[in-house]
Amino acid sequence: MATISNVRLSIEDSGRRRSRVSVTYRICFSSCEAMANSVFHEKVTLRGDDPVWDDHLITLRNTCVRATNGCIERTLTRDIANSVLDEDPDTIILGWVIGNKDEIYARVRLEPFNPSATRGDSNNVSAHFGPAGN
């Protein structure tokens, strides 16, 4: 099975209430996966770390990747609005701001791609196509 390692998140202020988010990681494939040209669904998300459950903040990557021999290094950089990263909103009481620190981590997930059936339906067209329509 493919492995994910060295997942690193960095967040730097980029001005105008935005931050530059960078996620780096390594994906290593088995020799069997490479020989089979296996395809994986790759998803990278930012999550807020909280005591009860972790909040999904934003999806940074949602694509497919084909297995290759050895490992690949991945880097993903996006400018994200600070309002998205503000997973623990600050409290304002009578003009006083009480800051709540935000705890954010990146999650990288690989799932084997399994083709499945799908369909799409068009809109309905209503008309008289028989003798009543002439």
Any overview of this molecule?
- The chain has 134 residues and is mostly beta strands.
- The chain is built from 2 helices and 8 strands.
- The protein has helices spanning 31-35, 82-85; strands at 3-15, 18-28, 39-48, 55-66, 71-81, 91-93, 96-98, 104-112.
- The strands form 3 sheets. A 3-stranded antiparallel beta sheet has the order 1-2-5. Strands 4-3-8 form a 3-stranded antiparallel beta sheet, with no helix packed on it.
- Strand 3 (39-48) and strand 4 form a beta hairpin.
- The protein is flat, with a radius of gyration of 23 Å.
- The chain starts with a strand and ends in a 22-residue tail after the last strand.
- The model has no long low-confidence stretch (mean pLDDT 91).
Helix content: under 10%
The structure class reads: mainly beta
**How many helix segments?**
2
- Report on the biggest sheet: 3 strands, antiparallel
> What share of residues are in beta strands?
over 45%
Q: Give the N-terminus to C-terminus distance in angstroms.
A: 65 Å
Q: Runs with pLDDT <50, length 5+?
A: none
What best-fitting shape do the alpha-carbon axes yield? flat
Determine Rg (CA atoms, Å).
23 Å
What average pLDDT do the residues reach? 91
> What is the H-and-E element order?
EEHEEEHEEE
Biggest sheet, strands in spatial order? 1-2-5
Instruction: Tell me the number of strands.
Output: 8
